[in-house]
């Protein structure tokens, strides 16, 4: 006899609910009434750094501590039988001492009074996707500002400089000093405008396959022979990465700015400074395409990590905007340029600070294979 609520064969799901939960990129756990772990998916195993076999039957309080916010969250959901959320909860992983931040939702399962579904979304990935649009907008606004500055300021500057040079002919010693001051200051402003022009719109060019490891090696050699000669470099590369479609010189410029930023953060006096250059393939990382172009994969992740003091909290949300800097005498253009280059290549750049380490992460697309 057919069950009363059964779906027609053509509408029946092709995958079981358990298979769907297992395939989710978010960590999912089911908890019994006593908050012992009943089941976990693969993402939860990866997040908690323990296998399902070791986690099964283990109390959430024993795993995280009886007063941990996730224990309180699960208890509240079980008691009230209402879905309950908590954001930016810290998880300290015992095996690696890493600290992860997660958004958590505890949901009582309908018809299963003894079970609570606990879903954990790691904030690092969520933050990347939330802030990439803001960084893209900042990069584009800087480009528009550069075009306005170049057009509206450079032409009057040349007139001011020319007038000062004409005045030099009949000026006395005091007058000469003033006209030379005018010339030097107009040259300084023109130089700043020249630096801003790199943000302007660039003619579209056919992307070429770029080996990102060759870019990183080139930048490391430049840095090690100059401004970062006192800093130790660590390399951790995924050798199987495909090439990036783009402009090699622009990518060198972006990575060089990130490495220079890391070296500046460490400082010239420290002798224990370390900059780590890492690459990895993250197939789940996607970016909203331009003009409604859907979600585009940016799976190639370049990480530049340093052991400097980090970025002050008030600056983090605006770090990739022009003229935002924590350096004395800095112009605040370096990281804005990195955001612009990342946007040109269909990717984005982001910042993460964790465990005394500052990580700038550059996410890029990979070259599509073409048939012969």
Task: Considering the chains and any ligands shown, give keywords for the structure.
five-stranded antiparallel sheet, 11 helices, five-stranded mixed sheet, alpha+beta, 372 residues
Oligomer: single chain
Overall structural class, as computed from helix and strand content, comes to alpha+beta
Listing every helix as H and every strand as E from the N terminus to the C terminus, the arrangement reads HEEHHHHEEEHHEHEEHEEEEHHEE
What integer is the average pLDDT?
79
Name the beta content range.
Answer: 15-25%
How do the strands line up in the largest sheet?
Answer: 2-1-5-4-3
Got a strand count? 14
Q: How many helix segments?
A: 11
Major sheet: 5 strands, antiparallel
The end-to-end span amounts to: 56 Å
Relative helix content: 40-55%
The outline comes out as elongated
Low-confidence stretches: none
How large, in whole angstroms, is the Cα Rg?
27 Å
């Amino acid at each position: 006899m057919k069950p009363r609520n059964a779906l027609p064969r053509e509408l029946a799901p092709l995958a079981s609910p358990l298979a769907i939960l297992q395939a989710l990129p978010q960590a999912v756990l089911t908890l019994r009434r006593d908050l012992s772990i009943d089941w976990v998916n693969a993402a939860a195993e990866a997040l908690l750094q323990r296998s399902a076999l070791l986690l099964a039957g283990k109390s959430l309080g024993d795993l995280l501590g009886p007063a941990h916010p996730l224990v309180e969250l699960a208890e509240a959901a079980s008691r009230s039988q209402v879905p309950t959320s908590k954001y930016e909860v810290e998880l300290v992983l015992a095996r690696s001492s890493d600290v992860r931040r997660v958004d958590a939702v505890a949901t009582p399962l309908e018809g299963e009074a003894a079970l609570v579904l606990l879903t954990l979304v790691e904030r690092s990935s969520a933050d990347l996707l939330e802030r990439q649009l803001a960084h893209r907008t900042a990069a584009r606004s800087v480009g528009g500002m550069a075009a306005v500055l170049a057009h509206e300021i450079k032409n009057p500057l040349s007139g001011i400089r020319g007038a000062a040079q004409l005045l030099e002919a009949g000026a006395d010693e005091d007058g000469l000093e003033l006209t030379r001051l005018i010339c030097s200051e107009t040259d300084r402003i023109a130089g700043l405008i020249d630096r801003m022009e790199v943000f302007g719109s660039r003619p579209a060019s056919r992307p070429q396959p770029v080996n990102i490891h060759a870019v990183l090696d080139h930048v490391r050699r430049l840095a090690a022979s100059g401004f970062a000669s006192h800093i130790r470099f660590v390399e951790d590369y995924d050798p199987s990465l495909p090439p990036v479609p783009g402009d090699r010189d622009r990518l060198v410029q972006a990575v060089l700015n990130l490495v220079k930023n890391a070296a500046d953060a460490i400082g010239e006096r420290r002798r224990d400074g370390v900059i780590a250059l890492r690459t990895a393939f993250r197939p789940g990382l996607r970016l909203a395409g331009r003009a409604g172009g859907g979600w585009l994969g940016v799976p190639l992740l370049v990480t530049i990590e340093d052991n400097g003091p980090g970025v002050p909290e008030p600056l983090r949300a605006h770090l990739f905007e022009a003229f935002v800097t924590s350096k004395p005498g800095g112009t605040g253009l370096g990281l804005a340029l990195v955001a612009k280059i990342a946007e040109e290549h269909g990717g984005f750049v982001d910042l993460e600070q964790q465990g005394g380490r500052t990580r700038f992460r550059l996410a890029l697309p990979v070259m599509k294979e073409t048939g012969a």
